[in-house]
Design a protein that fits this description.
With 313 residues, the chain is α/β, with parallel strands linked by helices. It has one domain: Alpha-Beta Barrel (TIM Barrel), CATH 3.20.20.70. It is 42% helix and 13% strand. The protein has 12 helices and 8 strands. It has an 8-stranded parallel barrel, surrounded by 7 helices. Helix 8 links the parallel strand 6 and strand 7. Helix 2 runs parallel beside helix 3. The longest helix is centred in the middle third of the chain and has 16 residues. The structure holds zinc ion (ZN).
Length: 313
């Protein structure tokens, strides 16, 4: 999504999807709604509220259609949802999502293991989705992002060749995506790589077709990677409230970068997010109550903002 004039950086909350899918327990639908409403009220403009995957695979997200419909009633909120395939995209359109994201793992082994699909098969789904969207009236047509997961490295294959990431980004755009995204699914990225890979993809698809990153903090590099992204002019960053979801491979490390810490970083650097840190910390308390015993991450929630701190906005 293009960034509104009154903010500099769009913080896209992915906790209700990426966070909740990674933890075993199922958050009640009403608690999810309260979370989303409170976070929107704190000033968050975009929330990925769920994933249209079969309920038997991810019972945590079985209520995604209801959550999308609810989120749509919140004025000014851009409602995003993940779709694993054409069928999921149909359901997302029906529910009224403003943005749908189809993940394509740059590592084919990872793609086979996670989605049980080859690159060619996922690109085929992307083409079908693109055709379906083209046939919709513009006012009902969601943005369609092709998200390159494991773009910075894969737990199975290790190094993922940058040429492969670029090739797949081009293929996704040709298949009908309106934009592409890069995801550090495994927390392998470093700041130099963030700049190099983003610029390589920009050279192939155009700067306006890649505006955001999805970073994880598995190895503590998340915010360093954010600064690299800001340095080259990226404007959208995914994050998860309380870093929920964690990382099963790195005890003590959050999964996604932590929304509270990210918003503090941005505002402290003078970049307007439109988000109120005190209100965000209230949302964190709400989520902590709804997930008793679940580990929440982040430094700013514990330390508080520094004395004399003034937000950018
Ligand atoms: Zn993620």
């Amino acid at each position: 999504m293009s960034v509104a004039a009154d903010i500099d950086i769009l913080v896209s909350e992915v906790g209700p999807r990426d966070g909740l899918q990674s933890i075993g327990r199922v958050m009640p639908t009403e608690a999810k709604k309260a979370w989303i409403a409170a976070e929107a009220a704190a000033g968050v403009r975009e929330i990925e509220v769920g994933s249209f995957v079969p309920a038997k695979l991810l019972p945590q997200l079985a209520d995604t259609a209801e959550i999308v419909a609810f989120a749509r009633t919140i004025p000014g909120l851009h409602v995003a949802a993940l779709v694993p395939n054409f069928k999921g995209a149909q359901a997302a359109v029906e529910a009224g999502a403003h943005k749908i994201t189809l993940p394509l793992s740059a590592s084919e082994s990872h793609s086979l293991k996670n989605l049980r699909r080859t690159h060619a098969q996922v690109l085929d789904e992307a083409r079908q989705i693109g055709e379906m969207l083209k046939a919709l009236p513009p006012e009902r047509r969601p943005e369609f992002e092709g998200a390159l997961s494991t773009a910075f490295g894969c737990t199975i294959e290790g190094v993922v060749p940058e040429a492969k990431v670029v090739e797949l980004a081009v293929a996704l755009m040709e298949a009908g995506c309106s934009e592409v995204g890069l995801s550090d699914t495994t927390g392998y990225a470093n700041p130099t790589q963030v700049k190099r890979l983003t610029q390589a993809v920009w050279a192939a698809v155009g700067r306006d077709k890649l505006t955001g990153l999805h970073l994880h903090n598995t190895r503590g590099q998340g915010l360093a990677n954010v600064v690299a992204a800001l340095d080259i002019g990226l404007t959208t960053l995914d994050a998860s409230l309380g870093g929920i979801g964690g990382c099963p491979f790195a005890p003590g490390a959050s999964g996604n970068i932590v929304t509270e810490d990210l918003v503090f970083l941005l505002e402290a650097m003078g970049l307007r997010t439109g988000i109120s840190i005190p209100k965000l910390l209230e949302v964190r308390r709400l989520v902590a109550e709804a997930l008793p015993g679940e580990q929440l991450y982040g430094f700013v929630p514990d330390a508080g903002v520094p004395k004399g701190f003034r937000p950018a906005s």
